[in-house]
């Protein structure tokens, strides 16, 4: 069954490594829905988390192909359970004197943080899983969403294992 999965890739932090990984995905016809990348706690290494759609066969193929890329150290497909997943979203919503307090109250319920207040808008920061962010977006639609910016998913296994 095709569904969304997160793939962790640990690489040596070399020039062009992200480009080589993404080129492999393009050549093979795999679509990357989201991507986050950054350095790790270990100097000289980078961590990429890719969100892709696929079934078990496609995921196994992706894992084998990514391992073939020079400078890739580890490839892990996160299981559906035992993983912490988070995304960051900035959302700009129309607001005025009448709606501002309602929007801030809803943001508080979702543990959002108001970053900017302008005469006709609010910018709110939210962190959470995809379901939480979608829920907040739905709540804000009636006020008028002006802009949304989201990171990709950042994921980490629970416990001591990587």
TrEMBL record:
SUPFAM superfamilies in the cross-refs: ACT-like
Organism: Leptotrichia mesophila
Entry protein name: Acetolactate synthase small subunit
Record-level GO BP terms: isoleucine biosynthetic process; L-valine biosynthetic process
Family recorded in the similarity comment: Belongs to the acetolactate synthase small subunit family.
NCBIfam families: acolac_sm, PRK11895.1
GO cellular component: a single term: cytosol
Pathway listed: Amino-acid biosynthesis; L-valine biosynthesis; L-valine from pyruvate: step 1/4; Amino-acid biosynthesis; L-isoleucine biosynthesis; L-isoleucine from 2-oxobutanoate: step 1/4
Function: Catalyzes the conversion of 2 pyruvate molecules into acetolactate in the first common step of the biosynthetic pathway of the branched-amino acids such as leucine, isoleucine, and valine.
GO molecular function, one term: acetolactate synthase activity
Entry's EC annotation: 2.2.1.6
Record keywords: Amino-acid biosynthesis, Branched-chain amino acid biosynthesis, Transferase
């Amino acid at each position: 069954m095709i569904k969304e999965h997160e793939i962790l890739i640990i690489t040596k932090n070399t020039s062009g490594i992200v480009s080589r990984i993404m080129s492999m995905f393009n050549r093979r016809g795999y679509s990357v829905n989201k991507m986050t990348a950054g350095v790790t706690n270990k100097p000289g290494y980078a961590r990429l988390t890719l969100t892709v759609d696929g079934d078990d066969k496609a995921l196994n193929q992706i894992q084998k192909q990514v391992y073939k890329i020079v400078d890739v150290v580890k490839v892990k497909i996160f299981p559906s359970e035992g993983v912490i997943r988070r995304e960051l979203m900035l959302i700009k919503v129309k607001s005025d004197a009448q709606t501002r307090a309602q929007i801030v109250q809803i943001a508080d319920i979702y543990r959002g943080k108001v970053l900017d207040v302008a005469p006709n808008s609010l910018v709110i920061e939210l962190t959470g899983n995809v379901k939480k962010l979608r829920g907040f977006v739905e709540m804000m639609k009636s006020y008028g969403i002006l802009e949304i910016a989201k990171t990709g998913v950042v994921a980490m296994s629970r416990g001591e294992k990587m």
